[in-house]
Amino acid sequence: MSFSSFHPRSASPARPVVSAVATGLLLAVACTAQAATFNGSGALTTDYVWRGTSQTQGDPAVQAGFKASAVNGLYGAVWGSNVEFAPETKASSEIDVTVGWGGTLTDDWALDVNLTHYRYPSTTVDLDWTEAIGTLTWKQNYWAQLGYSTEALATDEAGAYAQLGAKLPLGEQVRLEAAAGYYWLEDAYDDSYTHAQLGAVWAFRAPFELRVTAHATDSSAKTLFPGLAGSRVEAALQAAF
């Protein structure tokens, strides 16, 4: 199976131990969430773009998520979207299960560390994999993120991802969001790639926002993900509640 035959998350043997760990941690969060807070999100988007590459072949996506947070900072979350990969995978949906901890370090600094398990329940091959992700945020508007997996993109090889980003408020209702990332995939695919994005968000009526984002990748991404990487623009109507 070649990389471009499927999508950025290609197939590998099943990993029931990882799934069991993620499920166990999620149950632990639920048990400690006596004074938990709950929130959710939803979005309608013209394209599901993940780390610079389309996960829906450029087609629209419907997305929704739910999060439960305990007073001690532990949380569990579930997020889902439709996807569209190569026809032979029969992949049509993605469900991400996340467990982690998030909290403030000082008045200006906050930290979030989590374990995210990406699942594709409708596939004929196993595309599931897990990644550890840490995000350090300054003044709620600037962040640095690092992700690492020993089964990057559902392979049996390690991969790391780094991102720097910023939110730039232009008023009470409008903000810009910019980010640049680099994905180390030398072990899995003998290559790595860079991507960047710039978006404008209009919070026109709470809790609804309209987002338009321009994405770009380098030539390595285009080689790894033909037709899925490169320059593209996606628009979304999103809400948090």
What are its keywords?
54% strand; disordered N terminus; 14 strands; globular; two-stranded antiparallel sheet; Porin; 12-stranded antiparallel barrel; 3 helices; mainly beta; single chain; 241 residues
Question: Can you tell me about this structure?
Answer:
- With about 240 residues, the protein is mainly beta.
- It has one domain (about 5-240): Porin (Beta Barrel).
- It is about 10% helix and about 55% strand.
- The chain contains three helices and 14 strands.
- It has helices at about 15-30, 185-190, 220-225, and strands at about 35-45, 50, 55, 60-70, 75-80, 95-105, 110-120, 130-140, 140-150, 160-170, 175-185, 190-205, 210-215, 230-240.
- Strands 1-4-5-6-7-8-9-10-11-12-13-14 form a twelve-stranded antiparallel β-barrel. A two-stranded antiparallel ribbon has the order 2-3.
- β10 (about 160-170) and β11 form a beta hairpin.
- The longest helix has 17 residues, at about 15-30.
- The chain is globular, with a radius of gyration of 18 Å.
- Mean pLDDT is about 90; it is low at about 1-20.
The sequence of SSEs as H and E is HEEEEEEEEEEEHEEHE
Main beta-sheet strand count, sense and barrel state = 12 strands, antiparallel, barrel
Question: N- to C-terminal separation?
Answer: 41 Å
Fraction of helical residues = 10-25%
Total strands? 14
Structure summary:
The chain is mainly beta and 241 residues long.
